[in-house]
Write a sequence for this structure.
DNA sequence: AAGGTGACCGGCC
DNA sequence: TGGCCGGCCACCT
């Protein structure tokens, strides 16, 4: 079932999107980092859920958000099996075995809103 | 209305 | 980062 959140009414989602849109080209961040930025450090799961809705929005680069180990845990939610990896590699990020190479090097820490 | 689920994280072994 | 567990909270049935 595809859930289509109402952008106007979902403040939580908007916050997540606001952060996600700021991720620079060629950089990645983690769900936990975003959760921290929106003031819910322990609710990283919600960020993941928000990313689900973010799929509808072209502005939100969900492929630049991975888990804390740099693993592409959300790749299964993209159309193709390896679309997420393709997008990242297209931005100059090496991906091997569903994992971002030199994750710390490409990591981008979002600023608290 | 209550319980299950999840694109996670931190702590522990 | 292997495995397990408790916590977190919006969303779905």
């Amino acid at each position: 079932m595809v859930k289509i959140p109402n952008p106007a009414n979902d403040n939580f989602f908007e916050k997540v999107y606001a952060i996600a849109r700021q991720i620079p080209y060629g950089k990645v961040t983690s769900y936990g980092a975003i959760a921290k930025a929106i003031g819910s450090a322990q609710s990283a799961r919600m960020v993941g859920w928000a990313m689900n809705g973010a799929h509808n929005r072209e502005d939100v680069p969900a492929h630049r958000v991975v888990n804390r180990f740099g693993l592409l845990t959300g790749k299964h939610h993209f159309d193709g099996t390896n679309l997420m990896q393709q997008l990242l590699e297209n931005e100059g990020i090496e991906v091997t075995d569903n994992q971002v190479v030199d994750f710390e090097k490409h990591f981008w820490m979002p600023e608290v809103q």
About this structure: Residues 1-8 of chain A have pLDDT under 50 and may be disordered. The helical segments of chain A are 11-20, 31-37, 44-54, 83-90, 103-106. Chain A is about 35% helix and 5% strand. Residues 30-32, 35, 41-52, 62, 65-68, 72-77 of chain A lie near DNA strand B (CB under 10 Å from a C1').
